[in-house]
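User: I'm new to structure prediction. If I give you an amino acid sequence, what do you actually give back? Let's try with this one:
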Amino acid sequence: MKNSGIPWIGEIPSHWAIQRLQTQLFEINEKNSPIKTDFVLSLTNTRGVIPYTEKGDIGNKSKDNHEEYKIAYPNTIVANSMNILIGSVGICNYYGCVSPVYYIFKERNEAVLRFFNYLLSCQPFQKHLRQYANGILEIRLRLSCKDILQRSVPVPSSPEQQAIADFLDKKCDEIDEMVSLQEKIIEELKAYKQSVITEAVCKGLNPDVPMKDSGIEWIGQIPEGWCITRLRNLGNTQNGISQGGDYFGEGFPFVSYSDVYKNYSLPNDVKGLAKSNEKEQELFSVKSGDIFFTRTSETIEEIGFSSVCLETIPKAVFAGFLIRFRPNSNALNTLYAKYYFRSDIHRAYFVKEMNIVIRASLSQDLLKSLPVILPSQQEQQEIGEYLEKRCAEIDTLISVRLSKIDALKEYKKSIIYEYITGKKEVNG
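Assistant: Good question. You get back a string of structure tokens that encode the predicted 3D arrangement of the chain. For your 428 residues, that looks like this:
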């Protein structure tokens, strides 16, 4: 081994060279004007280069004028000039057009494209590139093509590049399969958790209790001693505060859309801040027992997610994208409500009743008409305590799987680095 003289690389095998990346790759910068193709491609962190139509409703929208795009060819590397620092790089297997912020690289002479794709995907190299990036926002720093290609990189012989790329293809595929397995198990655990919640709040904890027809098709049967009422009979609703951008960022606690969407119960230390006054803090207050619902979204699936407030947050206000439901005294057990409104039984109601024009929007009237299953106060407490324990057990299993995924992803990063810098050798 010898010292490469470059901190992020460290030692490399004695017979390897250190060369500028431009000796191995060059840029293809061919405009799609006049239009040669309307087959738009997109670059993703997880799947590499894919047809834009397969990307789904995430990220930036495709431009209407494809003349502004660049031509991409099969067997090239595509890198996002604004996201390469977080791993937006991948091999292209299509002929199509890509965003003008993408770079397209082709290998020179006997260079092995897949080896240099792994190098560009290497986290230490990406961190090294950061010092050459320009921009204000951390997540949108831009690198010039010149600054990428002028970086010094480790260069083994072409046969070694091929062997390393073949090895990493196989090894990374194995790791990705293990990650996919863990992700599948997590989704199964989440589905199981939802079924446990829905079963408990709809059927109770006693499997032998006599049942009766609820009178609502999508709820079905409920225990004989339970009743159904509308949410309007249990308390009052209130939309959140709506202000301009200057209103936020400093001041007093502010409960945001994500605080509700991501949590069964509100975090006590919400991160948002708002310049609210005493009158607003009273009108839009956040008190123990309050239940918040997500009000607007692009899809019905994200409407009506709930989060309960377990402890009053002094001087807090809440977002205009939320509806606060404040139960009457003793109308609802808070622990029961925490899980009841997160069950699956409400989806059918929202899908059936909600009208979508541009965005899905949950009105106070629609929310107040929501049927609510009501066991006795004692049963509500028992169900809440049962679900606290069962859901905590399931969440622990999910956390274990998430830790395994994190460990596998870190292992993948480490082996890419170790092999593309020669610290480990491919046997044979």
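You can read the tokens as a compact description of the fold. Here is one thing that stands out. The chain has a mean pLDDT of 91.
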